[in-house]
User: Fold these one by one.
Assistant:
Number 1:
Amino acid sequence: MPSWQHITYSDEIAAEHAGSIVTVGGWVQEIRNLGGISFIQLRDRAGVVQVTVLKKKNPELFKEINSLQRESVITVKGVVKESKEAKKGYEIIPEEFRVLNAAASPLPLGVVDKVGADLDTRLNNRFLDLRKAEIRAIFQVRATTLAGIRRHLTDEGFVEVTTPKIVAAGAEGGSTLFPIKYFDKSAYLAQSPQLYKQNLMASGMDRIFEIAPAYRAEASDTVRHIAEFTSLDVEVAFIESSEDVMAVAEGIVHSSLNHVAEAARRELDILGVDLSSPETPYPRITYDEAIDLLRSNDMEIDHGEDLGTEGEKLLGDIMLKKRGSELYFITKFPTSLKRGTFYAKRDDEDPELTGYFDLDYRGQEIVSGGQREHRYDVLVEQMRENDLNLESFAFYLKAFKYGMPPHGGFGFGIERYVQKMLNLSNIREAVLYPRDRVRLIP
RNA sequence: GCCCCGGUAGUGUAGCGGCCUAUCAUCCGAGCCUGUCGAGCUCGGGACUCGGGUCCGAAUCCCGACCGGGGCGCCA
């Protein structure tokens, strides 16, 4: 006789269990009571198992189990019976059951209701939303993606680091910083580990990465912006050009896509997503070529202009159609468009160009980076152009005076990556508890 | 920050000046049913975001508040 504590998951029950008693447990997903026989769909982490109850066998138990509210948590001790009618090929004939926690009614969000629910309603009741296999699958894919990225980078000799999320100054414009109180000083939530990962390039740890939250107080209310997102940041020293940085980004995407396609096959199946990485190398086009492509596709855009959302989307279509790739690099962004990126190295021949690149996935930017300016004097000059207060960057600048190798890196938006991978209409779908301009709870 | 759009039962919707005692589905409750798996059938339950205004009459029109959705800019 198994104990109440030893619960067999629905996917562990096999032919060998037939005739023996097991304990199953989980949430009462559905009760189909036909009068003399009743079917309880009991859901656990692995799936759903059917508990079949006969009235004439045990009228008392029949009555009690059928009067449960949906989504109550119960454990059932019963005999595993092979059955042609049951979907799994077996069902549980209960001997006894325990109610661990009865659910109230009505549910604020149905788990298996045959009607939709707004994202807002779902997020307000995220724990219930996550009881749906197809929602949980998103986060399993996300975890698998992160595992693939970590494995790849570790194999490539990268060291995972963690840098402060409470900082004294921002890496980019000050308007997107969340101010916080820090004892008797004022501080901010880090919008990027930019300054720290560059700082580390002077440390001898010449290949590093960090996977951590980044905070942006942008007043951006779109399906691809959130105030707190997970940023994969990579920095590599002793590079020759931005091309070396692109190669790292490409390696991460390629290997993690393949890893997910393999290791998350079940979840992709649930989500109806067919995933694969395009052949490497991914196409690379320059910013100027991108503008020309857009213009030849009847978009009104001039050289020197930002691609804009419309341009990015159109370019995604064009690259898929003409180059057969959902992933592609846009390289050599003009300096005028990266003006705020004071640490970007400019082209030696043409200072109006940077070596900065974006990696776009299905018409949306997921990675942005390039070679940094590692020469102290030039860096200071570029910071002055941006009217930056050099004193508040003292710790950052110091590292450039005592042996800073050439280096580069990028920021990689994990949720955007998952969003595009799974064709999610809103980035919030890829975050358990998203933070945006208005949402702070749950 | 700018520009659109919307808020009707627990959930999702229809209705857009009087046919509203508000539609449909889902859900909940009662009943029938021994193989359901989008179970079926019968009966029942439950809602117009809030505050002003217009009008003989407001879910419906106007103003404001609150809440939400989408787009742009910007970005990961």
Note: Chain A has a mean pLDDT of 92.
Number 2:
Amino acid sequence: MENSQTTTPHTTSALVPQPSTLEGHHHNILVDDHHRSSSSGGRTFLKSTATSSSSPSSNITPTTRRTRHRVDAGEPRGCFNNYYSPRNIFQNSSSSPISTNLVGNSSAPEYYFQPMKMLSDFIGNSHSHFNSHNNTAASQLLLREMLQKKKIGYEDDVSEISRERENQHSDESIGCSSGVNNNNNNNNNNNNNEEIKINGCKKRKLYQPQRSDFDDDQEDFKDPDDELEMEYKHRDSADEDEEMLKSPMAPLTRQLLTCERKQIPRSILQSWKENFKSTLMTHINELVDSQFNVLFGSIGNSLQHPASNSHQPSSRQQSITPPPSSIPSSGPSDQVLNKNHFNGGGSVLLNENDKLRMRFYRPPYSSALAGLAASNNRDVYEDDGPLSLVVTPKKKRHKVTDTRLTPRAVSRLLGNGSTPSDHYMESTPSPRPQMPSPPTSVPISLPTSVAIPNPSLTESRHLFAPYAPLFNSVRSSLESPPTMIPHSMINPADYVQQLREISAAQQQAHRDLQREPVHQQTILERERGGSAGSADSGDTTGGSFDITPGVVYGPGHSSSTLTPMHLRKAKLMFFWVRYPSSAVLKMYFPDIKFNKNNTAQLVKWFSNFREFYYIQMEKYARQALSEGIKIAEDIHVSTENELYRVLNLHYNRNNHIEVPTNFRYVVEQTLREFFKAIQSGKDAEQSWKKAIYKQIIARLDDPVPEYFKSPNFLEQLE
DNA sequence: GGGTGGCCTG
DNA sequence: CAGGCCACCC
């Protein structure tokens, strides 16, 4: 089939833009850019009215309004906008929280996430701790607790505090107003809403099960508040060992230390030890205090003392830290904070390992605290619709994955088995550069683009085990024995957490049961539990399941989690079907235990695939038109065409399979249809694409090969 | 009213 | 890719 069409090179090139051709036509090349930048091919509803877009001869009807005129869902007002561009394609990469996952995925697994829990424990413990020792006034306790929670919120983003302040500045008098008036630079209008709008979104996430705040944090490495992270890490790193040895969990601590020693220069450890004992508690207390003060400061001094007093029964530190204004309060911790203040500033104290960890490890503190604070605030301020300043933890997007880099590729990158500490590059959107992998024992991470599962990282190991050789290999080389010390504990910061957690384990029980790391058994039960168990209950505030969506106990066990591998598979399926029904999809993912959410997710994937597909179609159709093609039949798509390559790159990036020949035909037909529609000016109509979608494209679906149903298929994808 | 699919946005 | 929204369909 191809032959017939490709036989006439000149024709082909003329029709479907090919690189070489494009160069010749400067004009054409620009088309993309115009579209890209103006996001308009013709009508831009959003951005500009009559963008200068030089778009081809085709009319550009400046439809100024952005109102949705769609006659039919989806078939919009012909928006020519939003051509996908590399930028669009990669745009998320920088913000992808996935990077975190990588760590877990490759070898660090669930351990990695414990810090979050520990953090929560820590916090919780602190609370109870305080409370238990101060029964003086119930009211005070309550208030204190509230405050503390709030504080925690602040703490969450130490670095963000300033930001928060700016935002919430208006209400220094947090007391009553904090929850009400503040928070909202963003949500001024939302105060009245029952539902909390987060960044304009008030609905729960459909695909990403609601995750506890903690979990959320775990995943995201990338919070805006890097500084904060730095601060905490730093602070912690500066201190910790000895205390640990004396703690109840000494044995564990020792283990950790041992581990650490392997990585860290002795000298560093020594210094840590020396500093640790004297500073550990101080840091902790100060941390708490400073946060308290932040709150108190805004609320009023009157509360300050009681709080601080109640604080530490042991009264290790009574010092009252400076008011909010000087957030980084005085004291050791402050110094650290200041030092870290940034971008390298803190590096002074860091050795390579530290740095590494800093990248890999996301201190539970920040986000976790924020999350906790948020949740707590809800409790406390039940009546207040709006949440306190701290609240609105930004929703993190959990992109299932980016399969640009195959596991194999990763393994190649890994080479010796050490990790490509790609996190250094995590902000780089581009395809993973091959980084020499620093020999690190610490959290090993894979490039963010490596498939990491969705939220449910905790189970990544299990998830991938059956499928990806890569992961197995990685694990074999990198993964520690079962007894492996949690990576999370490697970082001194974690020690603190751990301490707190253990020492106060009992007290927190009431609160974070739901946050508990889910035991596999539990998970399994949940999954079996049917609807409830599945990540469905998105509504529930806690939606805890998402955390560990699906655990694969081994081949043959189904999971409710769609992994990057599944995504890859879905993309490949797109070569056959553009409009698969959910029923069909379910058939082809026998290893998935479907529920409402993951079904929707899968369907959404195809929707996204189509979107990309159609965007490309329109784009190239217009190019063809601009190149002077008069007859749709003159358009031929060969496997060499740029369009084809782009599509292949998108759906079959690593050439996992040979693209079915029919796909080329489908592409060609689609392109022609778009071309004809544009040529005839139909694109001026509201839903001009709809006809193409339904009458043409949807009918070109082919049956997906049976082998896609094979449980081994994913493995074959590597 | 639920399901579906497209558009827009991040 | 995901979230949200919306319009359509049944």
Note: Residues 45-46, 66, 68, 70, 72-77, 79, 81-82, 91-92, 95, 199-200, 397, 579, 582, 603, 606-607, 610-611, 614, 687, 689-690, 693 of chain A lie near DNA strand B (CB under 10 Å from a C1').
